[in-house]
């Protein structure tokens, strides 16, 4: 029989994807969730919701991601705060062949720092690594940007991937999983469960004894 220490623990986190239209946010999610890629995927309208789990063997923890894939079109930008407001993690995605998409990703990071929950895990993600010969966003420029952010006591991760080939996609979510406050969430859930279990069922007779009684009619 397995001991209690061998039991896999469970934690659930909300994750949101942000970035300009056509950078491949939906493709990254579908590669991660379904291990599929579609060259002709239509743009997301509003937001799409998917879930997927990963297991971190070193901490014997299964993490369930509740993933909100937001639309990149400018007309949907006002909806984004609705999705990242209570998020534990955010992927800010850019296209390594499109410098303006990197600028847009930086704008999203600024917005998250101002409005998102304190402690949110942010991962800057360069997609379309399969088009590295057409790269227009320099890796050193991105690395310097991330280092400057982290020198200001931020905690921003950085990774590159190819949703098309699948290269690096799972690594991104594993990296985020290791940066999330797993212990805090699990311990908080255990504490709440103990509090609920410690409540005594039944009627509080002492409280009822002091409650006013209805007076009769004269």
Automatic annotation (TrEMBL):
GO terms for molecular function: GTP binding; GTPase activity. It holds the Pfam family Ras. The keyword Nucleotide-binding applies. Coiled coil: none annotated. The keyword Nucleotide-binding applies. Keywords: Nucleotide-binding. Residues 197-218 are annotated as: Disordered. SMART domains: RAB (SM00175), RAN (SM00176), RAS (SM00173), RHO (SM00174). PROSITE patterns: ARF (PS51417), RAB (PS51419), RAS (PS51421), RHO (PS51420). It comes from the Eukaryota. InterPro entries: P-loop_NTPase, Small_GTP-bd, Small_GTPase. PANTHER family: PTHR47978. This is GTP-binding protein of the rab/ypt family. The lineage of its organism: Eukaryota, Fungi, Dikarya, Ascomycota, Saccharomycotina.
């Amino acid at each position: 029989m397995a001991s209690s220490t061998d039991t896999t623990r469970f934690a659930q986190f909300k994750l949101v994807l942000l970035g300009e239209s056509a950078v491949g946010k939906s493709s990254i999610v579908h590669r991660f969730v379904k291990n599929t890629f579609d060259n002709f995927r239509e743009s997301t309208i509003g937001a799409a919701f998917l879930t997927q789990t990963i297991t971190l063997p070193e901490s014997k923890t299964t993490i369930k991601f509740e993933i909100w894939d937001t639309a990149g079109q400018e007309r949907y930008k006002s909806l984004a705060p609705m999705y990242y407001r209570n998020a534990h993690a955010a992927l800010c995605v850019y296209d390594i062949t499109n410098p303006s998409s990197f600028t847009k990703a930086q704008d999203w990071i600024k917005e998250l720092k101002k409005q998102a929950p304190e402690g949110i895990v942010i991962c800057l993600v360069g997609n379309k690594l399969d088009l590295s010969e057409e790269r227009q966003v320099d890796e050193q420029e991105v690395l310097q940007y991330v280092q400057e952010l982290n020198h200001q006591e931020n905690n921003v991760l950085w990774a590159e991937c190819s949703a098309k080939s699948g290269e690096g996609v799972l690594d991104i979510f594993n990296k985020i999983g290791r940066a999330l406050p797993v212990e805090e969430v699990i311990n908080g859930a255990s504490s709440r469960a103990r509090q609920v279990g410690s409540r005594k069922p039944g009627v509080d007779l002492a409280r009822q004894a002091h409650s006013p009684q209805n007076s009769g009619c004269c």
